[in-house]
Design brief:
The protein is built from 5 helices and 22 strands. The chain is α+β, with helices and mostly antiparallel strands and about 375 residues long. Strands 3-12-15-14-13-16 form a 6-stranded antiparallel barrel. Strand 14 and strand 15 (about 240-245) form a beta hairpin. Helix 1 (about 80-110) packs antiparallel against helix 2. The longest helix is centred in the N-terminal third of the chain and has 32 residues, at about 80-110. The protein is elongated and about 120 Å long.
Length: about 375
């Protein structure tokens, strides 16, 4: 856990304030690494088409290329004679059934009164059941096509096509106002599933395993992934093994076939005392981190009393120690070092402020 310490520094005759973050040096697991090339790809099954389920005339697209589409969203409007015929038949069957039902009830009543034979009742029953079955079949077909029969008041040729899956519109496959047949592909979607394809030199291929970490450099952030698939064949052009890792929840839009520089971490982990990379500073030709000085209050009070008259003649001494480190290895966030112990507190950010102040102080000296 880190804590934030506000530090006031008197420099060049004015007071400037900034915050520094204090971290504790702790053990961190490191792996061997190598840097190589990688490419953002999508697998072939990431593409899927939305096809028309009726024949007709393509009237309108409700989507456009690069647009994100969700399952159940309307995507196209088709003028279909098939839909016109089906809806007209449905309304006709519905009207006929009402008439047949009226006759059927009247026949039942007359049969109970002994005025009609059982044969005549059976004939009306067959007519009623036959028309009910036809209406149910047509209702099911229209419902599957997304047409709400309970709201159907008149025949229509308008058919709205809905997306059965989600993705990004890659292409509109049929021009507007063209004729389409049943099952014609109208829209090509690309699912929002990206992979990082990393090219592994043959000498490392046997050392890489599923789950190894791969970090690629995008323009604005580090893209961290884990190996999910090691391809069995060597790439003919690069003579390297291709490794795939799923990109989860990218922070920015990705573009397929983009080449990146990537670092792959492999092998057994080794534990070292580590600090954040942001804490490192190159000072006097050595890698250092800055820590807060430990002060003895009684000693400070004594020195302050003895040398009170000298304070006005010297610059304020910064409350930092410079700790020289030896860098052992590093990953994308931490650096393994020698020169600190577990639990030692160090300044993990804004170290360049402290470095610049120290450098200015050393150049300025104490002479007047």
């Amino acid at each position: 856990m880190s804590r934030v310490l506000g530090v006031l520094i008197l420099l060049a005759g004015y007071l400037s304030a900034f915050e520094v973050e204090i971290e504790s040096a702790n053990y961190h697991d490191f792996k061997e690494k190598f840097t190589t090339n990688a490419k953002i790809v999508q697998l072939s099954n990431a593409k899927e088409s939305i096809g028309s389920i009726v024949a007709g005339h393509l009237e309108k697209y409700y989507v456009k290329p690069a647009q994100i589409v969700k399952a159940g969203q309307r995507v196209a409007l088709i003028n279909s004679m098939e839909i016109s015929k089906m809806s007209a038949e449905f309304l006709s069957y519905k009207k006929q059934l009402r008439s047949i039902k009226t006759n059927y009830k009247a026949t039942q009543k007359l049969y109970k009164q002994g005025m009609l034979s059982l044969q005549e009742l059976n004939n009306q029953t067959v007519l009623f059941n036959d028309m009910s079955a036809k209406l149910d079949v047509l209702k099911s077909q229209l419902t599957l096509l997304g047409i709400k029969t309970e709201k159907l008041q008149k025949s229509t040729s308008k058919f709205v096509l809905y997306a059965h899956t989600g993705g990004v519109v890659n292409a509109l496959l049929k021009p507007l106002h063209s004729s389409v047949d049943k099952n014609d592909a109208l829209i090509e979607l690309v699912k929002d599933e990206y992979y990082l394809q990393t090219y592994i030199p043959l000498k490392y291929a046997s050392l890489v395993v599923i789950g190894d970490k791969v970090v690629a450099d995008l323009e604005s952030y580090k893209l961290s992934t884990s190996v999910t698939m090691i391809m069995p064949n060597v790439d003919e052009i690069t003579q390297r093994v291709k490794v795939l890792s799923v990109i989860k929840n990218p922070k920015q839009r990705l573009f397929t076939n983009s080449f990146l520089e990537a670092t792959l971490y492999f092998g057994k982990s080794t534990r070292y005392i580590a600090v954040k990379k942001t804490a490192l500073s190159f000072f006097n030709n050595e890698w250092v981190v800055f820590t807060l000085k430990e002060h003895d209050e009684e000693e400070e009070e004594h020195q302050e009393h003895e040398h009170e008259h000298e304070k006005e003649e010297h610059h304020d001494e910064l409350p930092y120690s410079v700790n020289v480190l030896k860098i052992i290895m590093q990953d994308d966030e931490y650096v393994a070092v020698e020169g600190l112990h577990s639990g030692d507190e160090y300044i993990s950010n804004n170290s360049y402020f402290i470095k610049s102040i120290l450098l200015k102080g050393s150049l300025g000296g104490h002479g007047h």
